[in-house]
Automatic annotation (TrEMBL):
Organism: Paenibacillus lemnae
Designated name of the protein: Glycerophosphodiester phosphodiesterase
Domain GP-PDE: 3-240
Source organism superkingdom: Bacteria
Molecular function GO labels: phosphoric diester hydrolase activity
Amino acid sequence: MNNLCVAHRGFSAKAPENTRAAFKMAMDVPYVNWLEIDVQLTRDGVPVVIHDFSVDRTTTGKGKVKDLTWQEIRAMDAGIWKGKEFQGEQVPSLDEVLQLVKGRLKLNIELKTSGEMYPGLEEKVLDRIRAHNMLPEVVLTSFEPKALLRAKELEPRVNVGLIIDAHPRDLLSRLKKMGCTFLSIGYSHLDAAFASELHRNGITPMAWTVDDRRSMAALARMHPEIMICTNRPDTWGQLFLNLIAPRIPFWRKWKGWFR
């Protein structure tokens, strides 16, 4: 149970995903070590934190992120769909999220792209990370290998990781060729032997997206280096509380949060 907890798009089970409300709620959980966020570019080149390629599902607006300006997206409500108490939440810029979490949590920043959808995405994201002096505190991940290769070319010091929902036989060799030190993998494709092999080769695995206690416990038993990416950090915390915290003298200070 030494596994690190990653809040998927923030505390997205309770708050609107990829918003300041979700991030702040996750930051209040003692067991959250990382945030996982998604970054795209507006039409005028501003890196914004949103998952879908369109704004339709999570905002009051319509259209594709790449076709809208920052001001147009900023005017949309990104919280009301989750509940009236979140009315007025906005799509944040990457700058705002970096400023919010600096020194408190680390960031898994997914470069949300496909092919050549966002020319310059890697450069703009790296520029903002460097502006906040947060290079050691982030990992850039993507389903798109070309985005990871471009990021490493632009900034050899940055940690990168492939996102994949499969386990092809050549996966480890592919990760090495891309210079990955991180692997974001659908949790059903991970086992103890592969987790150990990744660890021996300097690659940290993150299992996504895990919301039930049984799966969390099974992954924790596989290997202590497996990071648990979840919409429900409270579920992970409850598991920790029940199994580990009774042996820790200061556990009571956290107990009330999970009720």
